[in-house]
Amino acid sequence: MSTPATDVVVTGLGATTPLGGDVASTWEALLAGRSGVSRITDDWIKEYPAQLVARLKVDPADQIDRVRARRLDRSQQVAVIAAEEAWKDSGVGDAGVDPLRIAVVFGTGIGGALTLLGQDDILEEKGPKRVSPFTIPMLMPNGPAAAVGLAVGAKGGVHAPVSACASGAEAIRWGLDLIRFDRADVVLVGGTEACVHPLPMAGFAAMRAMSTRNDEPERASRPFDKARDGFVLGEGAAALVLERADAAKARGARVHGRLAGAGGTADGYDLVAPHPEGEGAARAIGAALRDAGLTPADIGHVNAHATSTPVGDTAEAAAILSALGEHVLVSATKSQTGHLLGAAGALEAVFTVLALREQIVPATANLDDPDDDAAVQALDIVRNEPRRTTLHAAVNDSFGFGGHNMALVFTTA
Amino acid sequence: MSREDIQTGLAEILEEVAGVTPADATPEKSFTDDLDVDSLSMVEIATAVEDKFGVAIPDDELGNIKTVGDAISFIEKNQG
């Protein structure tokens, strides 16, 4: 496969997460080792085995106009908040870019679940005439992408990849392709999720996928640790502005980093269980490296998907080890943010770009006793404190139920 | 209920649903052209009007309600 020559850079970053209402506060909290996880205290949770959640640090109602918010699902509200931060950060809005050359790719894993479930309650209680006319646009999984597209006036195309917890990463790869194939000059990419509600919580719990360490919320998400017992559901959104390097340079934009390559594969193994040796994940990382024209030795850091599930983390460790080797510094930032599902890949891409820009690798919280698994033991997983180092290139991988594997390669500006 | 009272009640709905400043909700204003109310918001407003004023607005009537004054007249004529 030939590598397309177009250089693509990241000129804008945005996020609202369980650690903070924007990129700066989220990054600061991440490096400080703070946790976004807490225990749900609502009555409905009492029967649930898993009672933990990573809620947004800042209520979207404090960041978005009331009238605008009432016709947006919560997943759409946070998408717009993150996207507008990234857009403002990039300065593209003031650069006179033709709207026909601006595209949006914004993924979600679940879509407008809160709207679907909330309107179903209204249907049951009050009948069909009281169901909101905004129900469909608020629940459709392309709704966040559409809302973001409207917010920035994108007319070059609005797309919504849906691949569970790989959706955010898939949006980034899609954005890279749009620029490489000259279908857009600027692409606002990202992922979003907001589905903290009894039904999704019950569904994930029924899969035995969630941590039940209810008495120690901040210690519950513990990727690669021997005592890990599942993920913690999080909510939030993250966004990046991608554009051609020459165009960014011509307008004097600040460049956070470069999106050098991407790879995507399917496990072809099981609907939800990852391949135990991470075969598909390793292929995705390998494909991303080739796409970027780099070798394993070039990669200094991996922001791992590592959700804190027993099988997922070891499969990923095997994939990282086989695709990259022992030298990479691995971080599992879900240990502090929880698992933002369709937003995870986008948020961790933001973290990867910041790690490269700031030359610091975030620590993995709660990794007290690394799993006995040989691959976990072999990897250099950063823990206790962030590590200052010299980085040129880093990988961010994301995997989703359905066997979706995505890997992104970023380099310094 | 007087036209003034209906206008006040309608203005509250418009503020809640569409963010219209109450002082702007005057009879001559067109919902779409002056107050920037789109078709889905009109459906929400109609539902809120039905609840607040105890009137039923059939879909074929909703299309005839173009201005705040049209809505006030409809409510005035149909209230119980």
Question: Which characteristics define this entry?
Answer:
heterodimer; A: 413 residues; alpha/beta; Peroxisomal Thiolase, Chain A, domain 1; 2 domains; eleven-stranded mixed β-sheet; two-stranded antiparallel sheet; 15 helices; 35% helix; 19% strand; B: 80 residues; mainly alpha; Non-ribosomal Peptide Synthetase Peptidyl Carrier Protein, Chain A; 57% helix; 0% strand; globular
Structural class of chain B: mainly alpha
The amount of helix of chain A comes to 25-40%
Intertermini distance of chain A? 25 Å
Shape of chain A: globular
User: Strand content of the residues of chain A, in percent?
Assistant: 15-25%
Query: Which stretches of chain B are low in confidence, meaning pLDDT under 50 for 5 or more residues running?
Result: none
Distance between the termini of chain B: 10 Å
Highest-level CATH class of the largest domain in chain A? Alpha Beta
Summing up helix and strand content along with how strands pair, one would put the structural category of chain A as alpha/beta
Strand element count of chain B: 0
Element string of chain A (H = helix, E = strand): EHEEHHEHHHEHEHHEHEHEHEHHEHEEEE
CATH homologous superfamily descriptor of the largest domain in chain A: Thiolase/Chalcone synthase
Per CATH, what is the topology of the largest domain in chain A? Peroxisomal Thiolase, Chain A, domain 1
